[in-house]
Amino acid sequence: MELSYECAWIVPSRPFVTSGLIGLASFLFPKATKSLRRIRAMLSVLSLAAAMSVSIATFWQQVTGRSTFEYSWSWIPNDDISPKIGFSVDSLTSITSISVTTIGVLVMIYSDSHMRHDQGYVRFPVYLSFSTASTSGLVFSPNPIQIHVFRELVGMCSYSPIGFWFARPSAANACQKAFATNRTGDFGLLLGILGTYWITGSFEIRESCDRFSELIDNNSAGSSLANTCAPLPFLGPVSKSAQSPLHVWLPDATEGPTPISALIHAATMVAAGIFFVARMLELFETLPLSMNVISWIGGITALLGATIALAQKDIKKGLAYSTMSQLGYMMLALGLGAYKPSLFHLITHAHPKALLFPGSGSVIHSMERVVGYSPNRSQNMSPTGGSRKYMPITGITFLSGTLSLCGIPPLARFRSKDEIIAKSWLRSFPPGCIASFTAVPTAFYMFRIYLLTFEGNFRAGGGTNSSHSSMNSVIRSNTKTIATSGDGYDVPPPPRDEGVDSAGGYDGEDSVDRKVSAESNIRSESLYPKESDVSMVLPSVVLSIPTSLVGSIGVNLAGGETGPDLLSGWLTPLAGFSEDNNNPENLVQLLIDSAGSVGLSLAGISISYVIYGPISSHTQPCGDIDPFAKQSMGSFNRLIGDWSHNRGYIDHYYDILLVRGIRFLGELTLLFDQWVIDGIINGTGILSSIGGESARYGEGGRVSSYSFG
């Protein structure tokens, strides 16, 4: 057996051990470890780099040999039931592990600079390393039981970083929502695993899929039982991969620091659900009802996420709904049996999304110097604009990620998106309509994010035509903002200005005006964003390379006579599951076939450019650049704006049906307990007491009275 396969266990174990040791040292020696926090971050980066090197070696062995290796041993030896634990290496695990580890390393490097001023910096690398280790363990798991264990660890790793700034109520509520939502899905997953074992008698993926297919073919398993048990494992991916209606946790997860958002959206949390469905696809394929459920949920999620993202003001929430929509694309493809396009889309989505979140974090990091240290202002796209002039590297890399998500050739996602749309039309009319229509709002909202953030004039300071009063307002806003790094902000508060007294108040408005007029040249430098340092820019530059090139693995550029593309040869599904590979004969034919989907994306980009382009923003003050934010907008724009700002009203319905409904049931239960249950018990006691008192008055101590009575 090759050495790279035997060492595959290193991929999850190295970051797991490192995070455990660093966390233990922080608990036992808090002061010493706090002073050595940069060394701890370096150890975390080195451990992830070692895991990445093993992943690359494993992947290269798969490219050359394309063999499957599995090693497992009995976890609980028993004659009746014997669950196993171990690791499995095949083409799917090797490709997925490379995405997880490479993105994990780059996000760790980025976070070293992004979080260096935060009071919780010491524990942040522990969360990142443990999250990457849990996802890697899930990827290499050979059976559903082990997958479920690592899924719970992934859920725990998401709960802690999302609530990293737990002193902020919104962050505390977000991590609780993520925990509750994912527990709902994981409970269904556990029931599905047990139900599948009840039918097949095996916990192994390959064996259970074979037995399930055989039982269905022989009509040995009841259709109602099979159709009940088979979709239950899908509830886990519905919650983990933010599928409707359990998607509500993902946008709120942006309350955590930007690096953990990048890791969740690109490599860990959301990829876990798609990976599991791909692993169990042969089992789902035996039941058309299950495949229809998967495809419809994926299509609804794709369309819902794209429409909600149309008018989002928060840059991170806009990217979060983009992730939700693209995961819907992947789930739609899996439900249609398009194994290769779905996983191709997962690979091509990971690196652009890992590029966009650090880019947004750099903008937020820089805008906090200008608009203040509040997420409601620093993450709001309305006051930004023209940032590309001050942050050229971030702007260019963000544009490459935006174009990739829009599906513009030759960037990564154009071919994977085109394959999903083509497969959708081949299967049936409704999925084709959903997949094609979603491409237009996807390109619209992604280019809207880019244009509002990087093009036009810088609106927070009024741009080139900024007046003295606008500069005054920004300086006052910055000066009045008193924040500590432990309250949930990415950078520390600025030094106290001379115009602020020791109590944090102003010496007077005239004092501020004199400061502005006397120090206008010095202060004007802080009124504009600036490029981030090397450790924050370098990961974005590195991620822009796979964003541009990774899509080539799914394209047969050599011609049809040489066989399928590289990805079709690598992504061999389980147990002989196969699909047709209709690859274009050459690059020209590829571009011709992709003209329809690319045209849809260009239409969305054109509409976005007309509304938000630099020409239309020259004369627009802050807040008026977005037609969905205007008070005088038309009914259609108002409908879209309300739909997007209210998140499709789904959270509102959840609040009515679940939160208020459960509270109402709780109040009814309390009243029933107080007046019925306690009433019966207390009534019995009261009646006994009254009867005793009545009997006491009848006792005179005279036998003649008793005889008479």
UniProtKB/TrEMBL annotation:
<keyword id="KW-0812">Transmembrane</keyword>
<feature type="domain" description="NADH:quinone oxidoreductase/Mrp antiporter transmembrane">
    <location>
        <begin position="143"/>
        <end position="438"/>
    </location>
</feature>
<keyword id="KW-1133">Transmembrane helix</keyword>
<dbReference type="GO" id="GO:0003954">
    <property type="term" value="F:NADH dehydrogenase activity"/>
</dbReference>
<protein>
    <recommendedName>
        <fullName>NAD(P)H-quinone oxidoreductase subunit 5, chloroplastic</fullName>
        <ecNumber>7.1.1.-</ecNumber>
    </recommendedName>
</protein>
<keyword id="KW-1278">Translocase</keyword>
<dbReference type="GO" id="GO:0048038">
    <property type="term" value="F:quinone binding"/>
</dbReference>
<feature type="transmembrane region" description="Helical">
    <location>
        <begin position="390"/>
        <end position="412"/>
    </location>
</feature>
<dbReference type="GO" id="GO:0015990">
    <property type="term" value="P:electron transport coupled proton transport"/>
</dbReference>
<feature type="domain" description="NADH:ubiquinone/plastoquinone oxidoreductase chloroplast chain 5 C-terminal">
    <location>
        <begin position="521"/>
        <end position="673"/>
    </location>
</feature>
<comment type="subunit">
    <text>NDH is composed of at least 16 different subunits, 5 of which are encoded in the nucleus.</text>
</comment>
<feature type="transmembrane region" description="Helical">
    <location>
        <begin position="12"/>
        <end position="29"/>
    </location>
</feature>
<keyword id="KW-0521">NADP</keyword>
<dbReference type="GO" id="GO:0042773">
    <property type="term" value="P:ATP synthesis coupled electron transport"/>
</dbReference>
<keyword id="KW-0793">Thylakoid</keyword>
<keyword id="KW-0150">Chloroplast</keyword>
<dbReference type="Pfam" id="PF00361">
    <property type="entry name" value="Proton_antipo_M"/>
</dbReference>
<keyword id="KW-0520">NAD</keyword>
<dbReference type="Pfam" id="PF01010">
    <property type="entry name" value="Proton_antipo_C"/>
</dbReference>
<keyword id="KW-0934">Plastid</keyword>
<dbReference type="InterPro" id="IPR018393">
    <property type="entry name" value="NADHpl_OxRdtase_5_subgr"/>
</dbReference>
<dbReference type="GO" id="GO:0009535">
    <property type="term" value="C:chloroplast thylakoid membrane"/>
</dbReference>
<dbReference type="InterPro" id="IPR001750">
    <property type="entry name" value="ND/Mrp_TM"/>
</dbReference>
<keyword id="KW-0472">Membrane</keyword>
<dbReference type="InterPro" id="IPR002128">
    <property type="entry name" value="NADH_UbQ_OxRdtase_chlpt_su5_C"/>
</dbReference>
<feature type="region of interest" description="Disordered">
    <location>
        <begin position="482"/>
        <end position="515"/>
    </location>
</feature>
<feature type="transmembrane region" description="Helical">
    <location>
        <begin position="318"/>
        <end position="339"/>
    </location>
</feature>
<keyword id="KW-0874">Quinone</keyword>
<comment type="similarity">
    <text>Belongs to the complex I subunit 5 family.</text>
</comment>
<dbReference type="Pfam" id="PF00662">
    <property type="entry name" value="Proton_antipo_N"/>
</dbReference>
<feature type="transmembrane region" description="Helical">
    <location>
        <begin position="293"/>
        <end position="311"/>
    </location>
</feature>
<feature type="transmembrane region" description="Helical">
    <location>
        <begin position="92"/>
        <end position="110"/>
    </location>
</feature>
<keyword id="KW-0618">Plastoquinone</keyword>
<comment type="function">
    <text>NDH shuttles electrons from NAD(P)H:plastoquinone, via FMN and iron-sulfur (Fe-S) centers, to quinones in the photosynthetic chain and possibly in a chloroplast respiratory chain. The immediate electron acceptor for the enzyme in this species is believed to be plastoquinone. Couples the redox reaction to proton translocation, and thus conserves the redox energy in a proton gradient.</text>
</comment>
<dbReference type="InterPro" id="IPR003945">
    <property type="entry name" value="NU5C-like"/>
</dbReference>
<keyword id="KW-0813">Transport</keyword>
<feature type="domain" description="NADH-Ubiquinone oxidoreductase (complex I) chain 5 N-terminal">
    <location>
        <begin position="75"/>
        <end position="124"/>
    </location>
</feature>
<dbReference type="InterPro" id="IPR001516">
    <property type="entry name" value="Proton_antipo_N"/>
</dbReference>
<feature type="transmembrane region" description="Helical">
    <location>
        <begin position="262"/>
        <end position="281"/>
    </location>
</feature>
<feature type="transmembrane region" description="Helical">
    <location>
        <begin position="433"/>
        <end position="451"/>
    </location>
</feature>
<feature type="transmembrane region" description="Helical">
    <location>
        <begin position="41"/>
        <end position="60"/>
    </location>
</feature>
<dbReference type="GO" id="GO:0008137">
    <property type="term" value="F:NADH dehydrogenase (ubiquinone) activity"/>
</dbReference>
